[in-house]
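Marked as duplicate of an earlier ticket. Keeping the data here for the record.
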Amino acid sequence: MKKFSKLAAQAAVAVSLLSVGAPTFTSAVQASSIENVTQDTLSLSTQTKLDPYVKVEHNQYVLSESAKNVVSAEEYRVAQQMIEHSNVVVANSGSVINRKTKVATNDFTLSDKNSIVSLNKGTLATSQSRYHYGVNKVTYHWNYIRVYLNKNLTQAVAGGAVGGVGALIANYVTGGAATFAVGAISSSVGVLVTDGIKGGVWVDYNFFTGTVTGFGWQ
């Protein structure tokens, strides 16, 4: 709990500093250059309600009409907009969505000297060692992304060099929205490595709330 409290404080400071001079947010979904710059938000509780109604059909996320029974028409519209955005990214990145976990990736098995990492399961299946050098990778979900940073990139981010994070998430978010995302993700890395950099890390970033919702070691 203390780590997440510290994370929330650091992320808030980072976002407030990074927001100076940021462009006005608009809503857009384009097949070429996607910029997730929407003012619309959905609470985490609303996203939880919607999650069972998000299905995978023909390698695309589909929001069931029956979701309108549990959320307002406006919340449904905002969720649909995000899903359309995510579907464009999935298509452009050549990713495949696991129908069970609803995780999209274009690398199903990655390996390092310590372990086998099975991303198509939506979690890291590792062996031999608790900490791993890790990989640089982003997996997509209908409402958030999971950013994987290997040990070298984690060290760079902890030292203040955040360009690598921006490069990783550029396929999903750019412009002012990316500034906020990089600030929050980098702050979470700082919290995680307080006691030293043991290996690569992963960070979940939710676009509706503009916050990190989880992080850990690869």
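See parent ticket for discussion. The chain has a mean pLDDT of 78.
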